[in-house]
Automatic annotation (TrEMBL), chains A, B, C, D, E, F:
SUPFAM superfamilies: Ferritin-like
Highest taxon above the source species: Bacteria
Family: Belongs to the manganese catalase family.
Matching CDD domains: Mn_catalase (cd01051)
UniProt cross-references to Pfam families, sorted A to Z: Mn_catalase (PF05067)
Database matches in InterPro entries: Ferritin-like, Ferritin-like_SF, Mn_catalase, Mn_catalase_dom
Designated name of the protein: Manganese catalase family protein
Amino acid sequence: MFRHQKELQFEVKVDRPDPMLARQVQEVLGGQFGEMTVMMQYLFQGFNCRGEEKYKDMLMDIGTEEIGHVEMLCALISQLLDGASPEAQDEAAKDPVTAAIMGGVNPQHLLVSGLGGLPSNSNGVPWNGSYIVASGNLLADMRSNLHAESQGRLQVARLYHMTTDEGVRATFRKMLARDRYHQYQWMAAIQELEEKNGVVVPATFPPEAELESQPEAYEFWNLSEGNESSEGLWATGSAPDGTGNFVYVAEPVAKGQVYKPAVPPEAIHHDLNPQNKL
Amino acid sequence: MFRHQKELQFEVKVDRPDPMLARQVQEVLGGQFGEMTVMMQYLFQGFNCRGEEKYKDMLMDIGTEEIGHVEMLCALISQLLDGASPEAQDEAAKDPVTAAIMGGVNPQHLLVSGLGGLPSNSNGVPWNGSYIVASGNLLADMRSNLHAESQGRLQVARLYHMTTDEGVRATFRKMLARDRYHQYQWMAAIQELEEKNGVVVPATFPPEAELESQPEAYEFWNLSEGNESSEGLWATGSAPDGTGNFVYVAEPVAKGQVYKPAVPPEAIHHDLNPQNKL
Amino acid sequence: MFRHQKELQFEVKVDRPDPMLARQVQEVLGGQFGEMTVMMQYLFQGFNCRGEEKYKDMLMDIGTEEIGHVEMLCALISQLLDGASPEAQDEAAKDPVTAAIMGGVNPQHLLVSGLGGLPSNSNGVPWNGSYIVASGNLLADMRSNLHAESQGRLQVARLYHMTTDEGVRATFRKMLARDRYHQYQWMAAIQELEEKNGVVVPATFPPEAELESQPEAYEFWNLSEGNESSEGLWATGSAPDGTGNFVYVAEPVAKGQVYKPAVPPEAIHHDLNPQNKL
Amino acid sequence: MFRHQKELQFEVKVDRPDPMLARQVQEVLGGQFGEMTVMMQYLFQGFNCRGEEKYKDMLMDIGTEEIGHVEMLCALISQLLDGASPEAQDEAAKDPVTAAIMGGVNPQHLLVSGLGGLPSNSNGVPWNGSYIVASGNLLADMRSNLHAESQGRLQVARLYHMTTDEGVRATFRKMLARDRYHQYQWMAAIQELEEKNGVVVPATFPPEAELESQPEAYEFWNLSEGNESSEGLWATGSAPDGTGNFVYVAEPVAKGQVYKPAVPPEAIHHDLNPQNKL
Amino acid sequence: MFRHQKELQFEVKVDRPDPMLARQVQEVLGGQFGEMTVMMQYLFQGFNCRGEEKYKDMLMDIGTEEIGHVEMLCALISQLLDGASPEAQDEAAKDPVTAAIMGGVNPQHLLVSGLGGLPSNSNGVPWNGSYIVASGNLLADMRSNLHAESQGRLQVARLYHMTTDEGVRATFRKMLARDRYHQYQWMAAIQELEEKNGVVVPATFPPEAELESQPEAYEFWNLSEGNESSEGLWATGSAPDGTGNFVYVAEPVAKGQVYKPAVPPEAIHHDLNPQNKL
Amino acid sequence: MFRHQKELQFEVKVDRPDPMLARQVQEVLGGQFGEMTVMMQYLFQGFNCRGEEKYKDMLMDIGTEEIGHVEMLCALISQLLDGASPEAQDEAAKDPVTAAIMGGVNPQHLLVSGLGGLPSNSNGVPWNGSYIVASGNLLADMRSNLHAESQGRLQVARLYHMTTDEGVRATFRKMLARDRYHQYQWMAAIQELEEKNGVVVPATFPPEAELESQPEAYEFWNLSEGNESSEGLWATGSAPDGTGNFVYVAEPVAKGQVYKPAVPPEAIHHDLNPQNKL
């Protein structure tokens, strides 16, 4: 069960409205790596967590924090939209600056939300549940969490340069600090889990079944022209868990057959084969 | 530019058709972490790669390999569907086993694709471009790649137990081996990049701007009841890059204000405030 | 079966083209509460209506009227786009006003529809079937209809202020008048149905099963800080149907357990628990 | 800012697993009118609420309660999936009952979430942001809330009959009780707002602009064969706010023109008109 | 403006309910090539048609007919669902046939639509506006129409074999007949347009600009292993409009450069290049 | 299996950056008829092709070429975005031209892809799998291919006029030439298939079943006012395959019944009918 307190986690106070910026900020609210994504992702991972109390507790801590980040971004977007009005567009025909700003505004901020944040990204595409990850395998999921915080922080950093409004930047700095901590946090959790279970997900696949395909588990297939790709750590030396050595296959040969599928039954209406009479 | 050769990368030959399994296999073809995702993700990362020849070459190698994995899965699904026919449903009313199988079949395999693979997941939801990640920041993106291979391998491992068909399992073993290699590969690439740029993404955000929010970058906020979350590596000791020490904030206090947004202009038709006359 | 007559329901004649406005108008054509939504919603409710001749007839009347509203909006958008051309963008670099207008235009009006209306909203997101409601329960559905007309009229009212073009405004005034009538209409229908069936949907749930949870059916749970929410009609007095009295629970206590889910079977590859051996 | 406590709002304890039911329950978790919808809808309405403290507080109370309902449904679905395993499908070929159950299971419960709740509906379609409503106009939005609770309660009532598991039914009874209260609550809030602002949304549209279309605001257009639709409250008597009398237009005449759009400029490549030479 | 008459275009009367078939029929109601698609496609083409009265009139005729086809399919699905009930699922555990049928039912037919047609496909994915085509270029669009009728008829033909219910089949035969006519119709219209404008869309692109790329307009590039593709009409002889002769390029050579994009500006946080200092 | 070579198929070298054009070009990369669509469409048709070696080989040739077109468009978009930066927006408030350009830029080119191509259309809507067609019936599918190349070429032609940048236009000319060839190609293939199988898809539907609906297969139903539609080839003369003569039904009469569906079982909670007691 959840509870809400009235204060925002951090202060949100912009220096001046900026409806074009409000549109861009939607990316980190309702985009693929916005706060709605990490909020729902950590909550679902927490709700579905089986058998690991300290991980579940940690997921609930962070997921609950992220609900408050969605709240902060709605406050930020509302302030950036303060004073925006439908009439501005009609005046746009007379004044290039107004016109330009109207061109860059998300029309749904005026028409749909009435100057509030929207559950959609910077192009107005609605947030959807396929952005999130909760597989039941904690190591796999925390790799997603580390990645989501990396993309999220990258996007906030890019947004930071889109404004010189010190109020907006102050909020972004708090978010960047939290995203820095969250990257550390998932790295630390991943380190714990890799030490327990090994680095390859899933860890529990039957080892005897893995044997047959042993060579393919260590080969780099050079399928694009040039062999610059032979220069990296992935091409030489041993695998990160020391279970084998990498092989750079400079001229790979297909190991499968030329596949010729069967002609389908008549009721599929494939049409081309005379023997197919209904 | 690309070229195609007729042989599949690995042999695909099922022992017997199984249209219910065909539906499940769609998850690793056209689902969030299916082969279409990694194919398009690595290709877009490669196409958009700026200034790093060996990384670009490597991305093109893997992205090109993954096109061939989509090809293999289409071959697998076609074979699992061999012999399926529309008439089976009508017979279902008479025979529980037929009925059960028809109930578990993706109707689009009969109606839409005519016994071929579909660009959609195991529930028939079409693949879409928001599954993929290509941000221009290689470390961020490779964390996504490591994660995608973790989820993909997890799902193939779960699928493996859904059949005892040795032909299907042989193909899955090859895919599991390649997904194992790909996890190693992205770990190795991430290690290289973290050594160059530091572990936090993005690395180039202006350090002076980070100072103000220094404390929040190392704090764990305990926002859910209980403090089991204080037991992990993320709660004590120093950050992975040694730049600071973690602080477990057992009883966090909100640092922001109670936010009261302004009343909107009249043309927004907020309706409730008497001073709003048009 | 349907028939079409050539005249529009109301005259559509704009004073001058305005491609930026054309983009905004898409919201009330193909957005969540646009005319496509009410058209498809009323038609599906009418097609699926079981056992109530006068309601079905009424739904078909309004649904059929709304097809004509989609037609009117396509005419309006076409006129707003008259004369727009691809070349304008290239000239934009030279002239701020042209640039601004091009920046605010929906590029698909030029590239995809060739100056016609699109089945999408003001941000170009395609209309989809999950916008509509047709549940078979008329009271539930008519509450949706009343709501949809409220949102639709609100958006047209906001659009009205985006232009001073008297031709456009004249069309909007007709639409506002119809949306006013449609709100009245659904209120009247709801009143009839509530008098027949009671105000709670569904009405026919077995009363004996409701008894057990009697108290929770009248309680307000105060889960956010502050108790301003105790001041409304929802917090005191009796329920609208007089079946009970409201209780404001100022300090609610959870009535459920701390939930600890079971560890999953091995083939799920949860990975963390050593007893899970395949 | 938000906080989480470990106890569920109400007890969730199923008598026995039932993976087919788990799939159906997804509708009220991640469907158009599931708990994710009301949770996000009330939170966004609360976050964006301008100038009405008691309404904002109330919205935050209910929105916060609904996060806990998402939590409860994840617990319910996890329990219904307990013991489900990938191997079951392979055994299905031998046993009709197993086959039937596998056919009715959401394959993503096995492959994607590892026996946890998914942010999607009973057909596996991901939840998306276009399900929710937050327009800034409280009367419009609360009509949506009343409607959403009507659909939600209707669906839970239908689900109730899909099982005789007393544990599942006990949870559903609690949800039905809360949905009953929430319907009362929105009715009460709507009554307050209609008394303040009038029944038509928006209330503040300039009255002088409404005059021109006065007649159309009270007319029912009979556009489908038959006139059973003349029998309802919407067809005779006065409007709910007494501002006018309804008129049943039995044989409506189009008031608009036959619309003939202009031929587009050459660069649109309309192709058919010889004068269009580039 | 539109009008509705109460009779269906053709009789719809199934011999017996069949909820599994109801789910499959959704494909031709709300799928990519279902009746909703052709209805909306022809209406939008008609609404947006500029300058060609007889084509516009024809599009309105067919579009209006298709609204009636949506109506017929809703009637068909309702009848196939007659008698289906939520309780059936609970009984499923006891009886394999019931279980199998429940497994194959669309749960939304019970939970969401209350035994009515849904605006979604056979897997429950909602219909969306990106299924339709209306470009303003009639020849391009009618090629889509011919294609849509081909897919639609193919799917109805496949459905036909899924049932031996003579009532259902009678309705399908009417639909197959209309789809046959509609294929003829679009062929005839295409023939007219190709005679007027030439066979390549668009026809009006400036001829002098086409000259530079003259050779590439007649070449087949053999980019997959094997040259079976040299055997078709597309590989030899002259183009359909006689403007040139086909050339089979058995060993194609790339004509472009190796592309190396520039390093991005600092605020993009590409991270890897040391000269990028903010 | 596939291989990649470093050279682009054709040279891509723009004269100067143009981020507004970059946004428009996304339509032909990730839109409904962009290169991602034809690439995935031809590859899936090829992968799923059963029993026709030369057609499969041809589909693989073209599908493989189209992967290279996606690559070219990513290169084009990257060049058009060269030098774009987040800071530009903040300067926009001071300068109308900058503001206008920022208003027309896709914010995701800055925030999400870091100046690279995106898998989405010109409004930022992600590409999805329901854009593509692969039915197993080659004639049906090749009609889609002819249509897709028609729309694609139309859109590139419209884009051509949006710029006078000679570098961009040179690339577009190559694409227009290839789209011209591809239209020829599918026409040639369709001609072959129609000669083999007849012009109506599917060809193999049982002829005896078609007889019953014979008349409806040749009738034009005039359902919109006016009879301009009687003037085309579709209204008079014989069908394209000479199997019958067209009939123009000027005043069509419905052949179906007035449909009255049955009242549903109680657990559907239809609510209105008193006999429905649980």
